[in-house]
Write a structure and sequence with these properties.
Layout lengths: L4 E2 L10 H6 L1 H12 L3 E6 L2 E6 L2 H10 L4 E3 L4 H6 L8 H12 L4 H5 L2 H12 L11 H18 L7 H18 L7 E2 L2 E2 L1 H22 L3 H7 L8 H10 L2 H17 L5 H9 L1 H14 L5 E6 L3 E5 L16 E5 L2 E6 L4
Parallel strand pairs: 1-2, 3-10
Antiparallel strand pairs: 2-3, 4-7, 5-6, 7-10, 8-9
């Protein structure tokens, strides 16, 4: 067993958050090469944090040893979304996962296929006909927004355009709370971004609760019939499902997909992907690996644990990095799991 390398530095002065967010891949790669291991420590969000950059270590953390790594209850995600499947731990998370799985299978899933087809056709039908350059990210984000609001809240922009616009604007304000400093300040004529986001969250929750009370069809109707832990659980999950997270993630993946397959030199690849669904699936899978929409997740180690970390040796090829992993001890504290591309 080897000691965890790197240093967490001192509070505030030793924080590396800015350097990390400027270029996460370069941040991790630099330290992997410096320390010769894919697990190291640093300071992120002013907290001592262990970075797990190996596939094996990530599997252990998220699967075999998931019971000793808790989701951070003080994370801004919890403040913005409340209790849901993303913030739950242990047995509670398992029960929620089992309950929600039923919503993405069988009749409930099949009922959304017509909506997906109609929204996709409406948003994308004129894309190939236009002779002007198109900024695809906003287009794909609009597509994702229409999909999540239609699937999860039964809101159609053609039938209720004002409600659709109101929810979209509130979701944008709510999103700004995630990327702003988590300090709630409100004075005459000005409010902090975090404070504004919390107000937007309250308004979204009012709309969601009204939908849960009135709607009997679609996803909302199925969700209200689930055996969830408490009365607020359904509304908290709907807040997560209709938020800006999913449209932004979908837009990110589709934009990366467009960039990878665009250009005159990629015509053969495009034809192959169009003709072979399996090949298209693998292209999408590789894009998710190389350009994931979210860069990682934070976990709290509630006790000391060992996890595998392949040591990097000079001239060692990547496929050899998983054959003789060295053990690393993770001290109690935060653990950051970067994207699989690392």
């Amino acid at each position: 067993m080897s000691k965890l390398v790197g240093t967490a530095g001192v509070s505030v002065l030793g924080d590396k958050s800015l350097e990390f967010y400027r270029d996460p891949v370069a941040f991790c790669q630099q330290r992997i090469e410096k320390h010769g291991t894919r697990i190291f420590q640093s300071r992120l969000l002013n907290k001592p944090t262990s970075f797990v950059c190996s596939v094996e270590g990530m599997k252990e953390l998220l699967c075999e040893k998931s019971s000793v790594f808790l989701k951070d209850p003080t994370d801004v995600m919890h403040n913005m979304y409340g209790d849901n499947i993303v913030t739950a731990n242990g047995e509670e998370a398992c029960l929620l996962r089992l309950s929600l799985t039923n919503l993405f299978t069988g009749k409930c899933l099949a009922s959304g296929s017509d909506l997906i087809n109609s929204v996709s056709e409406r948003c994308l039908k004129d894309l190939s006909a236009t002779g002007e350059p198109v900024s695809v990210y906003p287009l794909f984000k609009r597509l994702g927004t229409e999909l999540v609001l239609g699937l999860f809240l039964n809101v159609n922009p053609d039938e209720t355009p004002e409600l659709f616009q109101d929810i979209t604007a509130l979701c944008t304000l709510h999103w700004h709370g995630i990327i702003s400093t988590p300090v709630s300040v409100k004075v005459p004529l000005w409010s902090s971004g975090f404070c504004t986001a919390l107000e937007a969250k309250d308004k979204l929750m009012d709309i969601i609760k009204d939908k849960l009370e009135c709607q009997r069809q679609g996803f909302v109707g199925y969700l209200r019939d689930l055996p969830l832990p408490d009365a607020s659980c359904a509304s908290q999950h709907l807040l997560l499902f209709i938020s800006a997270l999913i449209p932004k993630a979908l837009a990110s993946l589709l934009t990366s997909f467009t960039l990878v397959l665009s250009g005159a030199g990629k015509k053969e690849i495009r034809n192959h992907a169009r003709a072979d669904p399996d090949y298209l699936y693998y292209v999408l899978l590789e894009i998710q690996r190389l350009w994931p929409p979210f860069i990682g997740g934070r976990r709290i180690a509630n006790q000391k644990r060992r996890t595998g970390a392949p040591p990097l040796q000079p001239r060692q090829r990547p496929q050899e990095l998983h054959r003789s992993p060295a053990e690393q001890r993770l001290s109690q504290g935060s653990v950051w799991v970067p994207a699989p591309a690392l």
